[in-house]
Amino acid sequence: MDIRKLVKKQVSALRAYDAKRVPCKIKLDANESPYGFADAAGNMAGIRTNRYPDPEARHLRHLLAKDLGVNPEGLLFGNGSDELIYYLITTFGGPVSYPVPTFSMYGIISHTLCEKKIEVPLDKDFDLDVDGFLKALRKEKPKLIFLSSPNNPTGNCFSTDRILKIIEASRGIVIVDEAYQPFSSEKGMLPLLKDYRNLVIMRTLSKIGLAALRLGFMLADPEIIREVNKVRLPFNVNSFSQAVAVAALKKKKEFRASIKAIVTERERLFEEMMKIESVTTFPSEANFILFRVEDPDYVYASLLKKGILVRNIKNVVPGCLRVTVGTPKENTAFLKALNEITRS
Ligand SMILES: Cc1ncc(COP(=O)(O)O)c(C=O)c1O
Q1: Distance 268 CA to ligand 1 centre (A)
Q2: Is the peptide bond before 101 cis (omega within 30 degrees of 0)?
Q3: Domains and CATH numbers, the chain
Q4: pTM over 0.85
């Protein structure tokens, strides 16, 4: 039997998401935090392993809603925000629009779900091309627009007035993906959530030290949440993740300290990288830095030879690599290696 012939055409044409584990000493490729919350994972004794998790994640929902000052009815969890992207596209369908370059999952999931993609290139400063979006809105009437701000992989926040112009002109839903908001000097869209019924804000615990939990969440008008909740798989967030998140979210001081340490190191990395003549370094409001080199394959391979793994994104942004901010020691090792490689 030829299994490939049974597979849907759209899926057959796909390649599985390549999250391969590359052996390395210093892992700076996936925008994770170098600081974990191992002690929050300690107290699992109370979990009844024979029971399904709380499908509504009530304890966690109320805790987080209180922290963020939002209505718990306006909050929905996903097994990572990746899953919420899936749910949003499943619920509303396409066309799905987003700027490029940006986070790859908006396009991958749209493709998987056979929805039309409308890609609008960013301008030369990596900001939103409002006219491009307005044209796309008129012509294609996208049901969903995904805006990652700060944007992965460019690192910048989009201008708030441009985001608002797109929200105001859109007859569909605009999702502002704030995965990297904790590292940004800007407030983000949360204070504006109540003013726009078609605004959804997406966040994740993955970038702030809890990537292992796979916990993302979206904030929106409860009517949107109720619709998306219809396609959510019943027990999508497991009991262990819920319990660890509840314990970790109480450690506010530790969260603040780890975020501050990452931002301080990001600024140091940026300043030091700017000193290297053959490297173009782009400012960042996230926990990673985009940089352009003359030969990205050579720099990537040479860093890896020294045990340092970064992300080669030359196919997404020509000539570019992306480095995640690590611990001070890791960053120092990266800077030393990058200097040696690019100055030789
Ligand atoms: C912009 C953006 N959104 C969402 C995600 C996915 O986050 P999660 O781990 O919650 O699925 C990422 C991960 O890299 C990201 O860069």
Answers
A1: 24
A2: yes
A3: 7-34+253-343 (3.90.1150.10), 53-249 (3.40.640.10)
A4: yes
